[in-house]
Amino acid sequence: MTVTLTASSFALRFSPFAAKVLFLVPVLALLACPPNDAVARGVPDGFADLAERLLPSVVTIETSQKSQEAHGRGPQFDFPPGSPFRDFFEEYNKRRRDAPRRGAAVGSGFIISKDGFVVTNNHVIENADEVEVVLNDDQRLKGKVIGKDPKTDLALIKIEPENDLIPVEWGNSKIARIGDWVVAIGNPLGLGGTVTAGIISARGRNLRSGPYDDYIQTDAPINRGNSGGPLFDIEGRVIGVNTAILSPSGGSIGIGFAIPSSLAQGVIAQLKEFGTTKRGWLGVQIQSVTDEIAESLGLKNAKGALVAGVVDDSPASSAGFKTGDVILSFNSVEVPQSRRLPRIVADTGVGKEVDVVVWRDGKKETLRVTLGELEKVDTASFRPGDKSEGKSGRTETITELGIKLSPFDKALAKQFELEEDAEGVVIVDVERDSSAWEKGLQPGTLIVEVDQEKISSPAQIAAKIEEALEAGRRSLLLLVDQGGDSRFVALRIKK
User: What is the chain's alpha carbon radius of gyration, rounded to the nearest angstrom?
Assistant: First the structure.
């Protein structure tokens, strides 16, 4: 199943089913649902009392923005210099471009304090020049954006009410169970104060929208405009922020997603205090541990996060992390899957010193690391700095892996657009239907390490194959570089 993120629509298209995960942008009115302690038991008699109590805490978010592109250039005529018509149309087009577009986005939000702090989705207010919050009694108040976090799609707004507001109570999404009743309240399709109900359909959903995906899935109907609104448990506590739906048409089909309260609360607290987030930063590139990779490393189970690269001058580098390490636990928290690690690290305090258990050279080791602050570094510029040493050998076909290799040289660097100072062995051909083909290796891929040892010739890889077979292993662990991105690949050895 393939997934493609379309920036213009914030739609993840899932093939072959042609369904869409819609992170509904302002123009479309966004969805939202935070996680809480959903602890509903049994079938409720009704939701009327709950709805009456909660409706005053839910708001509508309206935004406006100035957009030259949206307004277009207007009529274009070629009048001679000095013509009064020329001046008229230039002034007309200027006013047209500068005029604000109101009501361009409509979403939902919820009140978390008596003095007017409001939670919504980042995508609801992301491009807004002005934000207006509409209370349940139709009062309209100007909203000030206090902070926003694109990584989790959360934002915090402040309004100045004349009287105390009725805030929601946060719940604990960690104890919410699949099958618990939930209630969503919001502004779908501009119909404010809409109440829908359903159950928690699943937990821990990964939509590949960011590094901290951990969505609650619900069948409570939510549509465009629900974005940023609350997802309540049966006790009326917020356990999620409604954010997205899976739909082939753009309307609800009973598959909606909410940011869990366990994640949202911490982010909102930081936005309130700092105006931004302050996440822990380790400085490693990671990937999943497959069964083949686990076998090649001597791990009994495919778990943890495999370090595919260590950023220079990072906390991980200072603590002695190496490519090939498998992070098994971080600050006494087990890492069952690689995608869990970014969230664990982010939630750990900046500057905190913690123990990290890694699998290295067939045994566990404990490293001590002091975390940096993610927001203070430019992660886009990071690349692992490990380079292999020396070059020797000749072009050789490794039939056991289904690849043809050549030592790195300037001619290959030019041919495959590789860095001139790169070192290792270059794949120049890949056998179709081989293990290398299945793992996405292609001509131009640079092999830097084999079984966590740097290599510089095809002969070294052939020798590693013999060592693996003698040891009773049927796979080889390669560290490869493709387009500047490092990752580990376990290849099956054909006899």
Answer: 27
**Residue 31 included in any domain:** yes
Q: Are residues 311 and 384 in contact, defined by beta-carbon separation less than 8 angstroms?
A: yes
The parent domain of residue 343 ranges over: 280-381
3-state secondary structure of 18: coil
Q: Do 203 and 307 belong together in one domain?
A: no
Confidence label for 95 from pLDDT (cuts 50, 70 and 90): low
Confidence of residue 43 (pLDDT cuts 50, 70, 90): low
Instruction: Give the count of alpha carbons within 13 A of 399, CB side only.
Output: 1
Q: Are residues 70 and 152 in the same domain?
A: yes
* Residue 94, C-beta contacts closer than 8 angstroms, at least 6 positions apart: none
Residue 153 appears among annotated catalytic residues: yes
Task: Say whether 71 is catalytic.
Answer: no
Q: Which of 153, 214, 219, 451 is catalytic?
A: 153
What would the pLDDT profile of 142-176 be if each residue is shown by its tens digit?
A: 999 999 999 899 999 999 999 999 999 999 999 99
pLDDT at 345: 93
Q: How much is the average pLDDT of 415-429?
A: 85
Catalytic residue among 123, 209, 233, 486: 123
- For the cut 60, the answer to whether the pLDDT of residue 64 exceeds it is yes
**pLDDT for 455-482, tens place per residue?**
888 888 888 888 888 788 888 899 998 8
Hunting for tokens 């290295």 — which residue is that?
360
Q: Establish if 3 belongs to a structural domain.
A: no
Residue type, 420: E
CA angle 74, 79, 83 (to 5 degrees): 110
User: SS3 string of 390-458?
Assistant: CCCCCCEEECCCCEEEEECCHHHHHHHCCCCCCCCEEEEEECCCCHHHHCCCCCCCEEEEECCEECCCH
Using the Cα atoms of residue 394, residue 397, residue 401 and residue 405 in order, give the sign of their dihedral. positive
Q: Which of 100-104, 248-252, 292-296 has the highest mean pLDDT?
A: 292-296
| Count of domains for the chain | 3
Query: Which is the catalytic residue, given 57, 108, 209, 227?
Result: 227
Annotated catalytic, 227? yes
Instruction: Mark whether 128 and 29 lie in a shared domain.
Output: yes
